[in-house]
Design goal:
By secondary structure, the chain is mainly beta. It is built from one helix and eleven strands; from the N terminus they run ββββββββαβββ. The strands form three sheets. Strands 2-1-9-10-11-6-3 form a seven-stranded antiparallel beta sheet, with helices on one face. The radius of gyration is 20 Å and the shape is globular. 23% of the residues are buried.
């Protein structure tokens, strides 16, 4: 069994999910690592996305790559099979709690902004959201660094629990469409605060 120092378990491997509405076309980040997770990632500009928000009540966000392969056999290969990768996709299964928005402690009759974006996409299979999955890596010097996976997505597999006391538990999956972008985001000296 590996013995890891206590500092290896510092709370800091935060998983943050930021979603944006696309403006009718596939979104491409300003810069990405070109498949290298150590490459530089820069978020897309305001000309390609709008209504960017964080999922503040997120309780789980599990990213799963979904490669597809095609099997084949070669003559003279003693009957062993082989395969070649044909497509790549990704899925982000999320569960979150949403509350009604509050105004001076009083519940407003509006749906949480992030939940509203998800519900719009849930009801329209052609509506895409741009999803950025940010995992906090720690500091490099005085700068806060995040590993990023970003992709255009549709919403599938939605389930909602019965609301009580204005709290809604919602589960869904962001299913990637098109390319998955990776890289490292340097957020300068400010750590991302999903509540600001």
């Amino acid at each position: 069994m590996a013995q890891l120092p206590g500092s290896a378990f510092l709370k800091g491997r935060d998983r943050i999910v930021r979603i944006s509405e696309t403006k009718g076309a596939r979104v491409v980040p300003a810069a990405d690592g070109g498949g290298d997770p150590n490459g530089t990632y820069t978020a897309p500009g305001a000309t390609t996305v709008e209504n960017t928000t964080f999922l503040t009540g997120l309780t789980s966000a599990e990213y799963t790559p979904s490669p597809t392969s095609q099997e084949f056999f070669l003559m003279g290969d003693d009957g062993f099979r082989d395969s070649v990768g044909t497509t790549m996709a990704g899925e982000l299964a999320c569960t979150a709690f949403f509350i009604q928005e509050l105004d001076s402690g009083v519940a407003k009759q509006e749906i949480d902004e992030a939940l509203a974006l998800i519900m719009k996409s849930e009801n329209d299979p052609d509506r895409e959201l741009f999803v950025e999955v940010l995992t906090y890596l720690g500091k490099s010097g005085s700068n806060h660094m995040y590993n990023v996976r970003a992709f255009n997505s549709c919403i599938t597999g939605v389930s909602e629990s019965a609301a009580s006391d204005g709290i809604i538990e919602y589960s869904w999956t962001f299913q990637s469409r098109g390319q998955i972008y990776v890289g490292t985001l340097d957020n300068s000296t400010t750590k991302i605060d999903v509540y600001s």
